[in-house]
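Appendix B, Record 12. Input sequence as logged:
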Amino acid sequence: MELKQLYREIVNEHNLHPVHKKTIENPDLVLRGVNPSCGDDITLSLKLDGDIIVDGGYEGSGCAISQASVDMMVDQIVGKKKDEAIKLAGTFMGMIKGEITDEESIEALDEAAALQDVAHMPARVKCAVLGWKTMQQMLEGGAEE
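Logged structural output:
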């Protein structure tokens, strides 16, 4: 199977069968992220145990790229410390903007690396980074419910 086809399948799977599109009971952090240029709209909720993200979920709607990206992101950050999640967000945004291209950094993103080609689609960059930016802003700014 061609790599690009595999990436499309990963994105489709996360869009059509999201694992983390759910309500989190009593979240510690909640933040809404909106992409006004295309209507993507998510509300991200995280549950913390000290500095560790123990659960996460999102609600909302948007294009396949935004929804798949936020689902993959939550997969990546559950179980991680806040600073590790923030670092992953920086790596993801660097990859999407074409600034980070080394394989080792991109491999740290796991399935989210499937969105690397979005760097060649400027109109979709905001879609792909919406969840990641929301999470980064939430963890750096301490958004609360």
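The radius of gyration is 14 Å.
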